[in-house]
Amino acid sequence: MHIKFFKTLIKTLSLLILAAILIGLTLPQNYSVNKSIQINAKVETVKSLVSDFSLWHTWSPWGKVDPSIRFALGEPIRGIGAHQSWQSDWGYGEMTITSLSKNRMTFNALLKNEHIIEGEITFNEVEDRVNVTCKINGQTNAPLISGYLSILSEYVLNNTVSLGLNNLQTVAQLRDQKTQLDTNDSKISPSEN
């Protein structure tokens, strides 16, 4: 009786594993994330926070999402060619800014030497605000589980990019307000003779 039960259990588990593998093979390996936010700050302020990896700690959500993450900055630290890498309990990766113009920054990232990400952040000034849009296209290449990793990556990045844009909004607006207050204070202060 026990032997029959175990044989049935083994067959059932084998079929479930086979079904999970077949479903995983049919899932797409590509994913995309597209998030936007409006920021009440100057485009230069927002762009400087995004294109300078030494300032990412002020707004990037990754330290909160993964407390084990440790970043290393390469040279240069800002602008085209800027490079950062990271290591955490979840793995490692690297990111490079590939282009930078007045209204657009593109970057590439590689996670665990098998997960490729291409991204674009645009800065469109409308009146006194900046519309910031982050688009990410990723592709997973892990054998048998790529489809599942794509679903998980899209879910995690959707939430993390939203959090990052909200943090960027707060930091950029506070930075612009401080700059404006400092400018006003210097205009009001009596000049030294």
Short description:
This protein is α+β, with helices and mostly antiparallel strands and 193 residues long.
3D structure, described in words:
Helices cover 42% and strands 32% of the residues. The protein is of the alpha+beta class. Strands 1-7-6-5-4-3-2 form a seven-stranded antiparallel sheet, covered by helices on one side. The longest helix is centred in the last third of the chain and has 43 residues, at 146-188. It is elongated.
Present the secondary structure layout.
Elements: H1 2-26, E1 30-39, H2 43-51, H3 62-65, E2 70-73, E3 83-88, E4 91-100, E5 104-111, E6 115-126, E7 129-140, H4 146-188
Antiparallel strand pairs: 1-7, 2-3, 3-4, 4-5, 5-6, 6-7
Pick out its properties.
193 residues; alpha+beta; seven-stranded antiparallel beta sheet; 7 strands
Q: Biggest sheet: strands, sense, closure?
A: 7 strands, antiparallel
- Report the average pLDDT across residues: 86
Strand order of the largest sheet: 1-7-6-5-4-3-2
Shape: elongated
Q: Structural class of the secondary structure composition? A: alpha+beta
Number of helices: 4
